[in-house]
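Sample A.
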Amino acid sequence: MIHDVDLLAKQLRQDGYVVFQLLSPEEAAGINGLVRGLELCGCGSRTSIQHRIAELIPTGGAAVAKLVCHPDLLALLSQYLGDNFRCATFSSNTLLPQDGSLGTGLGWHADYPYHDIGSPWPPPEYPQGVDMLR
């Protein structure tokens, strides 16, 4: 798949998020199966609200490395963050079914480094990082 990275970067700056497909449905199913297998064998940590497998890159092998090193993703991140960005971590965070009561789930929240930065926050034209969801 080839994407118009300039258009994706524009949308990311404008809307704060962008959605695009990096993997074929078969590749995505393969990674989902890999993560599910790791969860079933007890890898990672599990709480009442999530199952987390940290550092999925070495565990996930070539399939995960292909996703992390996808040329369109790297080009987009380079445009958005600058050329000296790094992948600090790549983990699987599976949210588990909740009972619907308040305060039981993670909900939308800011990840690192945002929770360590107090006001005044850096302006939007100086992004500090990105989160990638599947």
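Sample B.
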Amino acid sequence: MNDIINNILINEIKWWKECIGINQIQELTSIGYNVENLLFFGEIMFTLKGLKFLTLITEFSNLHIGGDGEGEGNGRNGLISLNQSFIDNVLSEPLNRFSSIIDYKIIDKLETSNCSFKNCLLVYNKLHPLYNQEFIQLISSSTLPNGSIELYLKENQLSKLLDYPFTLKENVNSNDSQDSQIDEIMDIGYQSENNRVIFSYFCTFDQLKSNRDLIESHFKKYSNIFFDTFEKELKLKVSFT
């Protein structure tokens, strides 16, 4: 399996260099993403090895390539979505080699009280205990007559699916919150030696203070798997958003 995981990394780096045009890079940057950190091989590895149930890629949204002469383009009007391009160029080998283990779905809309995403790519492990009747029913009940999938989740549902060590509280700094205090939001990142983010999640500052043991044990679990695969250490970084 490790050879496939290494190929995922190689193919993803190649995909960013050869398939993504300057317009898409600029658009991703303009909406706040650091494209230097947009590598998903680590999360896919953790999913493939069963450490977490699924990987959720939200960054590509409605972006397409190929229509401006950059990158590839073999879809309608010469366009292909970044999600589909990522599937074709990065995920095709593991999907073919491990079809009994992993699969994917495009989620047209995903919302919690704290976030809202469109056109997400969801890659999941079919051998994981969370791939059960409850998940299948969740997808089925969220599928509209036109085939699109719209998920409306509680934060505890999302944290469970993504294997976060604890749940971000609902309605953080929202008008719907009953708490008048402004919460400081923290970004918990697991970084490789070149400072690329391999895994991350958010919490409030109060949650950070009260869950230090959980944060540390969760990091060690992921760091050990990463080291077993790549013989490289991860480091834990905590920052304000």
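B remarks: Residues 42 and 198 are 5 Å apart (CA to CA). The longest strand covers residues 102-111.
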